[in-house]
Amino acid sequence: MNLEFSKKGFLTSNMLKVIAMVTMLVDHLGVYLFDDYVTMRIIGRLAMPIFAFLIAEGCTYTKNRLRHFFEIFLLGVFCQSFMFAYGETKLNILLTFSVSILLIYLTDIAMENRWLIPLPIILVGSLYILVNKILYPMGIAFDYGFFGIILPLAAFVPKNKWLKLISFALVLALLCRVSGRLQLYSLLALIPLCFYNGERGKFRFKYAFYIFYPLHILVILAIKHFMGM
User: Fold this and answer.
1) How far apart are CA 57 and CA 118, in angstroms?
2) Which of 5, 76, 111, 170 is most buried by its number of CB atoms within 10 A?
């Protein structure tokens, strides 16, 4: 239990995952089946920030970091394989978060060793160059780009609840700044995050998302294919 978070709030991480999954489903229905229907896209803006925040929480409490990384990464590779088949070239959010997880773990190692303190700054700077100056011109783009990658890191480094939320909000605002007007609605995700209590909830809900993400994408793409869209 996160004592800092438990002082206030009524939303568990399970509840946040449900909110994120529902809004993500609405968003993807809007993208693939309803011709970018703007109301559905607005609702969907809540999903990514909530998942990013929970990625940071997962990195904080996981007992097996290597398994945690490979679960996200391999699922991302699996999803990407059939997304490529349907013409989607952008690397999906799980691959974005895979890089986030590596960045978080390397940063955590650096924070535990004073002589490695400059490492996170070097990593973030190098990542910016790699993502924006090398991969993007080559046509390789991560979903939500550079700021999407470092967003979970912003929620991981501070340990105080409100500093964590402020840091997260600042990076999310930068993401909105470079992503266009629609992305501004993702700032609404800060509302449920303010009511997060640091608890997991009664049930282990970890693998629900791992199953839901590829399953709902597959179903939506199959519907789109059979409808000839």
Assistant:
1) 23
2) 76
DSSP secondary structure of 171-229: HHHHHHHHH-GGGGGGGGGHHHHHTB-S---SS--HHHHHHHHHHHHHHHHHHHHHTT-
Question: What gap in Å lies between CA 194 and CA 123, rounded to an integer?
Answer: 29
The helices-and-strands tally (H runs, E runs) of the chain is: 11, 0
- Of the candidates 77, 82, 83, the one whose C-alpha atom is nearest the C-alpha of residue 97 is 77
Helix (H), strand (E), coil (C) string for 28-63:
HHHHHCCCCCHHHHHHHCCHHHHHHHHHHHHHHHCC
Q: How far apart are CA 78 and CA 94, in angstroms?
A: 10
Could you read off the pLDDT tens digit of each residue along the chain, which spans 229 residues? Answer: 444 554 567 899 999 999 999 999 999 999 989 988 999 999 999 999 999 999 999 999 888 999 999 999 999 998 898 888 777 788 999 999 999 999 999 999 998 887 788 888 899 999 999 999 999 999 999 999 999 999 999 999 998 889 999 999 999 999 999 998 999 999 999 999 999 998 887 776 667 777 888 889 889 988 988 877 6
CA pair distance 225, 86, nearest whole angstrom: 9
Nearest to 11 by CA among 204, 202, 166, 199: 199
Half-sphere exposure of 203 (CA within 13 A, CB side): 8
* Domain boundaries, given as residue ranges, for the chain: 3-226
